[in-house]
């Protein structure tokens, strides 16, 4: 069905020239064609998000914050967690919750260390009870502890692997039975260009983000039959997050130069793709890794 067949396109002369029964035939033919070519629920891509419930890990800052706000702006009830490592962290989380509430959606937030399977299971149970279910999971919480691998401590290795990879596994495992039972769910894992390529000092980070791509594909295979889409985004260097505030300016400049679009991304650039992957417009995409990197990897 082409656009031209609607309204004053090629169909119009046929209708004008037709007898009344010819008109009926043409209309019937049109309805048949529409019926055999199912369209996504909505032509407004994000309308399908409204009324759903999302869990966003690490929603108090950067990409997680932008995603939580983007979802709420589109009528999604949001639960998010953060790592309570001081009064500043709690203040950041409270500010985000306040912003979300202004969008008239239900909000639940709590400190929950994604490295603890037990804490994650508790958070998921309470969030679902508070918000009345769960439809989307955004595994976003992540950290970096960059250094040459011969100087990398066990603690540096485990902190990054446990946060970036095990955390995503714990959340996915906790929600999988619910998503399978309701035969619906969208999971988006926030990987990185460093899950697909490497640079000096990132052995732990690259391993965790490449592992997250493996987890994405495995979960897509296992949950696909239950109508659950599992995808990953691979952001390049993103400005204005706590993570990149610690990256030296010359590395950020080099990243800007390497990106064919000649700029660094913003958290909203990543959030927009995450929202798309949660929408029904993306219903036939699963197991994919979508770069959001301005062409950094080309
Ligand atoms: P931020 O540091 O701005 O935000 C990280 C979020 O994760 C915060 O809410 C933080 O909570 C939370 N968090 C960290 N550790 C834990 C933990 N153990 N348990 C629970 N929550 C935790 O990071 P970004 O927004 O930059 O990064 C978000 C994701 O995007 C990460 O996975 C990162 O690897 C990935 N990414 C980022 C890129 C970038 O250039 N910024 C590029 C590519 C990927 P709190 O504030 O309380 O510590």
Short description:
The protein is an alpha/beta fold and 298 residues long.
Overall pLDDT confidence: 90
Q: Into which percent range does the helicity of residues fall?
A: 40-55%
- What spatial order of strands do you see in the largest sheet? 3-2-1-4-5-6-7
CATH superfamily: NAD(P)-binding Rossmann-like Domain
Strand content: 5-15%
CATH topology: Rossmann fold
Biggest sheet descriptor: 7 strands, parallel
Count of DSSP-assigned helices: 10
What letter string, H or E per element, gives the SSE order? Answer: HHEHEHEHEHEHEHHHE
Question: How many E strands?
Answer: 7
The CATH architecture is: 3-Layer(aba) Sandwich
Overall morphology: globular
Could you name the ranges where pLDDT drops below 50 across 5 or more consecutive residues?
Answer: 1-19
- Write down the Rg: 22 Å
Bound molecules: NADPH dihydro-nicotinamide-adenine-dinucleotide phosphate
Structural class: alpha/beta
How would you sum up this structure, described in words?
With 298 residues, the chain is α/β, with parallel strands linked by helices. The protein has a single domain, classed as 3-Layer(aba) Sandwich (Rossmann fold). Helices cover 48% and strands 12% of the residues. It has 10 helices and 7 strands. It has helices spanning 11-17, 20-36, 62-73, 87-101, 117-131, 154-182, 203-223, 242-245, 249-258, 267-278, and strands spanning 53-56, 77-82, 107-111, 136-139, 185-190, 228-235, 289-292. It has a 7-stranded parallel beta sheet with strand order 3-2-1-4-5-6-7, sandwiched between helices. α6 links the parallel β4 (136-139) and β5 (185-190). α3 runs parallel beside α4 and α3 packs across α10 (267-278). The protein is globular. It starts with 10 loop residues before the first helix and ends in a 6-residue tail after the last strand. Bound molecules: NADPH dihydro-nicotinamide-adenine-dinucleotide phosphate (NDP). NADPH dihydro-nicotinamide-adenine-dinucleotide phosphate binds at residues 58, 60-64, 81-83, 85, 89, 92, 113-115, 140-143, 163-164, 190, 192, 235, 237-238, 241-244.
